[in-house]
Amino acid sequence: MGIGTKWYRKSLLTVAGIPAVEKLSMRYGRKLAGKFIAGDTLAEALEEAEALNRLGIMVTLDHLGEGIKQLSEAAAYKEQYLKLLDGIAERKVDANVSLKPTQMGLALNQGACLSNIRDVVKQARHHRNFVRIDMEDTPHTQATIDIVRRLHKEGLTNVGTVLQAYLFRTEQDAADMIRENVNLRLVKGAYKESDSVAYQQMSEVRGQLKKLAKLHLDEGVYTAIASHDDQIIDWVKQYARDNGIDKSRFEFQMLYGLRSNKQAQLAKEGYRIRCYVPYGVMWYPYYTRRLAEKPANLMLVLRNMFR
Description:
Blueprint (H helix, E strand, L loop, with lengths): L2 H14 L2 H10 L1 H4 L8 H12 L4 E6 L7 H21 L3 E5 L10 H17 L4 E3 L7 H13 L5 E6 L5 H10 L4 E4 L14 H18 L3 E4 L3 H13 L7 E6 L4 H9 L4 E7 L4 H10 L1 H11 L2
Parallel strand pairs: 1-2, 1-8, 2-3, 3-4, 4-5, 5-6, 6-7, 7-8
Catalytic activity: L-proline + a quinone = (S)-1-pyrroline-5-carboxylate + a quinol + H(+)
InterPro entries: FAD-linked_oxidoreductase-like, PRODH_bac_arc, Proline_DH_dom, Proline_oxidase
Pathway: Amino-acid degradation; L-proline degradation into L-glutamate; L-glutamate from L-proline: step 1/2
């Protein structure tokens, strides 16, 4: 990323982390966050998922929450995910689920977190569904990977995770997880990370994401490439065509509220496209990361303030 964009991102994430700013935003900003959040309730989220399905777009549903303070909160989130999986099955929505490990207690007790996620994955297996464990910032990277590997060894293979292209370690992580046939989502990375662990230039990050996508496509491991970047999307499409890689072997993923027309276009072209649909009342951390990704997202919200 350029110096200006880098400064913008770090500044916005720093300001967003100030308790007074968070409190004020939580009180007055929900309407603005609605651009990126499907609703407060499960029913609202399922309705949005059904609407996307009608356009040929698959969904991954995320009941928002992270960085909890007590394990009782993790238990409550687990119950919400069990209900979410039941709701997907009952309404026959073409959707899987995404969850954050800190939401399930990772920062408090790794054993309890594993147990909570295991219960969700078992419920998903019962419904022949899939669970994506989102990747958070670097203090949780190894523990998240360890949880996925542990569940796979237990025979729960309907679970995967996310690798972030901007981290120096990711290329080795990808090679390791390919050998274990772990379903991965590849992303650029959305957290504020230092130059000691992560690439800082967008050209480098984009290059790493292409390298990771190539590695997965060449090895035949089903892969989700999550990006709104036309350079990445067009490169993947061309690479797949040039190498005879069927469209069924990968999917594109994009975020709810961003590039909706592009998502519909990819579906019409016969590509597998999945929309990441978050819902719930704990929307602030997710919302601030979306604004921090690029100034255009903030401008979009500011324009909506005056409509």
